[in-house]
Amino acid sequence: MHRFLLLIALLLPFASGAATTEQYVLDDGDYISINVYGEEDLSMQILLSTRGRFDYPYLGRLEAAGKSVSQLQRIIESGLRGDYLIDPKVTVNVVKFRKFYVNGEVHHPGGYDYQPGLTIGKAIAIAGGFTDRASRNDIQKTEAKNGTTQNNVGLSQAVGPGDIIVVDQSFF
Question: Which residues form a coiled coil (predicted)?
Fold first, then answer.
């Protein structure tokens, strides 16, 4: 029984990460791959431009910003179906997510590639952890999607792509 519970605990982060990736909203700075089964000329990897757009063969300029991976996949499939291919099989994956940023009292401040399921605590660990002068309670998060800043966020709070985390200095 203990082994079964341990196995579930180990696999749960991977299961939740897959669901998070499916709900992930594309934007500029994401690096995606598009694969069309049996059509090498239509399969490619693309860095989304500053407006979240890209040029795709036969379909012209496509808008990826604000769409999920599955929405973009359906757009490409429906665009290729009929005039170009009878029944296209398209997969879209995020190869490299856009960055999130950690500043302030961490050992290695800077930008890091986003990962589905990321929390404030994990982001700080990726940035090398707290310095000796860091406040464990005075942490700010500015969300990229709406620009709002939250003060005194907890370590278990979710981090999104483009978010900025600032760890302030402790007075003691």
Answer: none
Per CATH, domain 99-169 is 3.10.560.10: yes
Shortest CA distance to 39 belongs to which of 73, 89, 95, 83? 89
Contact partners, residue 60, CB within 8 Å, separation at least 6: none
CB 160 within 8 A of CB 100: yes
Domain boundaries, the chain: 25-96, 99-169
Tens digits of residue pLDDT in 120-140? 999 999 999 999 999 998 999
pLDDT digits (tens, 9 = 90+) for 25-44: 999 889 999 999 999 999 99
Q: How far apart are CA 111 and CA 108, in angstroms?
A: 9
Neighbours of 76 (CB within 10 A): 22
